[in-house]
Amino acid sequence: MNFTNVLVTGAAGFIGYHLAHRLLKDGCRVTGIDNLNAYYDVSLKEVRLEKLRTFQNFCFFRADLADRKAMEEVFDKTRFDVVVNLAAQAGVRYSLKNPYAYVDSNIVGFINILECCRHSRVKHLVFASSSSVYGANTRMPFSVHHNVDHPVSLYAASKKANELMAHAYSHLYELPCTGLRFFTVYGPWGRPDMALFLFTQAILEGKPIHVFNHGQMQRDFTYIDDIVEGVVRVMGNLPEPNPGWKGNDPDPGTSYVRYKIYNIGNNHPVELARFIEVIENVLGKTARKEFMDLQPGDVPATYADIDDLVKDVGFKPDTPIEEGVRRFVEWYRDFYGY
Q1: Considering only CA atoms, which of 82, 76, 18 is closest in space to residue 51?
Q2: Catalytic residue among 155, 186, 223, 303
Q3: pLDDT at 296 over 90
Q4: Which DSSP state fits 122?
Q5: How far apart are CA 213 and CA 216, in angstroms?
Q6: Beta pairing, strands 259-264 & 177-182
Q7: What does each C-alpha distance from 184 to 181, 228, 235 come to in angstroms?
Q8: What is the C-alpha to C-alpha distance for residues 53 and 218, in angstroms, rounded to an integer?
Q9: How many angstroms separate the first and last alpha carbons of the chain?
Q10: 155 catalytic, yes or no?
Q11: Which sign does the torsion angle of CA 160, 163, 169, 172 carry?
């Protein structure tokens, strides 16, 4: 599938910025939407936007996905080949503090996206899900063909709801939908609430870091460039019905309609203690560690089965954490003047 006109929601966010930048460099016309909320440092989002605005083929709307009228106006102005929905209220732990933000952005906002895509006959809706949907699952690696009916945070539940809503629209209105379960994304321009950012900042400032689950957590850390490459390949790969799908033995990862789910992960879980060691090595400083219990809503391990991604779009994320962390630290030192 060829695409030249793309809508990226959450364009001022971490993944949205990197995806929009890649598409603009590839010559696509990109429309970005973001509400620039204050969940984390707005100035970081504004600098990302400034970099995107240097491209003539970029157009930006400051709008909230939950604002139905604003969303309709964006879709009335332009006909998009592909919509990539990356806007969401992120963060597992914050969902325990402010659950309503997740309903507004991730549920109400997503139904507005679905309705706009339906009425404007978008050729392909690609949307961000999350590895968090695997919840209480312990069978590793996590496969899109596993049942994911036991979320352990509202954030995870909202992402599972997105998958269900998209499937309903694919069934009812023949809207091709592909959901992407991202696994612990990190890299330059990353979110300040994520571990790599927090650890790097604290270590450089000589402050202690909080090491949850006593360093025994495992995460399938996935470098941002690998995430973007996976998204771009999926954008051009329209989902097709699975002719072998059976209602009496339903496959959660495929469907009888044009709907598909993929994991995008590094396929190589790393223990948190090792991740911190890599950061220390790159920084040349030892962290002051405060060991803590597993936090409510967190899971002890994530590990992506990416067989379907490799089979369907021919891509396997492979950036090692040593390289990815080094690139992040270089960006961090340059951006913040360390």
Answers
A1: 18
A2: 155
A3: no
A4: -
A5: 6
A6: parallel
A7: 10, 13, 21
A8: 38
A9: 44
A10: yes
A11: negative
